[in-house]
Please model this.
Amino acid sequence: MGKNKREIGFIAGLLVAIIIWNLKLDGLSQEGQKCLALSLMTVVFWATKVAHPGYISGIYLVLLIIFKVAPAESVFVLWTMDTMYLVLGAYLIASAVKSSGLGERIAYSFLIKFVSSWKSIIVSIFGLTFILSLLIPHPWPRAFIIMTVIAVVIQSANLSKGDAAKLGLTVFASSVPVSMIFLTGDSTINILAVKFSGVELSWLGWFYNMGIPAIAASILTCILILVLFKPEGEFKINKDEIKAKLTALGTMKGKEIRTLVWIIIAITLWMTDSLHGFALGWVTLAVAMSMSLPIVGNILTPKDWGQVPLQVLLFLTAAISIGKIGGITGMNAWIASVVLPSSVPSNPFIFALLVAVIGICLHMVLGSVIAVMGVAIPALLAFTTASSMSPLVPALLVYSSIALHYVFPFHHLNMLVGLGEDNGMYTDKDVIKLGIPLTAVVFIIVILEIAWWNITGLL
Model:
């Protein structure tokens, strides 16, 4: 079956679409039924990796227009929103931090000061990920910069292949919960979660409501790694080798200084968005574009546009369209009425556990954080419409349940991109070993969120 997975998925997706398209579904409009058929087909295609998600997303978007499910301006609405340009700008800023050498310099300096034992290197990876999450608004470039530095640690400590894989796993696993702390920690799924809710949330507003739960998730993940992945032998690091790498970078160059200045400007504008009123996307794009200017910039060059993945932008557009078009056609409300209980549980802790179970179950099957958000958040928003609950509550609960959850590498792109000897050096088995007990952390965090939101006033 493994060899024919794509073909089986392709046929299964088409069959799902044809069956749903021709069923008589009471209470669902014709456009809603078309949307349901095409959306489920797309989700099956994504889950079974029929083709690259960008291609599948493009097909879905075009079919929505061809079959007159919704007009093009609704299907491609994301391209008129600042969210798209936040993602675009984030990739360019990440490229600037990496190419300037600033990220590598910070990482070496941090390790020299704080690393002395196995426990300290694990904790330091989380700490370094936290620091760089303020500078680089995307988890993948952060992880690969840190991995470059950790490779030096592995060499200087003469670690075994098994211990090296444990450190590699820590680099990419730390990016999952730490990316949840700041709104710009993951400029893709964090922003999407807020957009799905339909509620404006500032950078500080996100940190106020999500910071403590995400920090708790980071600490629990770190503890799990320390408990589950003990070193095979004695850990003794040669700091002279790391110092040599830092010395080789030389004094801080003009390009690094200009990059740092622009990053400080970006962070300041992100943190004060509730004061100046400029959307994060426009701020991020403006900073990124300014990095190309003479005198004040000279950081980004034409080749840096190659760091902006068009396929990811199409994927985001499709994920947003599932929710938006589902709302317009009545698909979301219909799914909520069929799948979910007749009423919202009065106890918010029970509601949080219900959302976590739904999110994890969908994620286990669909395997995509964005795809599950695109299906689950709109349905739960429709489910809670009659209640006094802020739309942010179900949106952030779904987000937390799936953004923190994975069992296999394909469940989370942060883990998938680090898989293999050429990247994080860890295997599927390592991910599963961490992922299974990590599921319990998901339930702990959603309960903590309900308690915390009672303090912040979100509930």
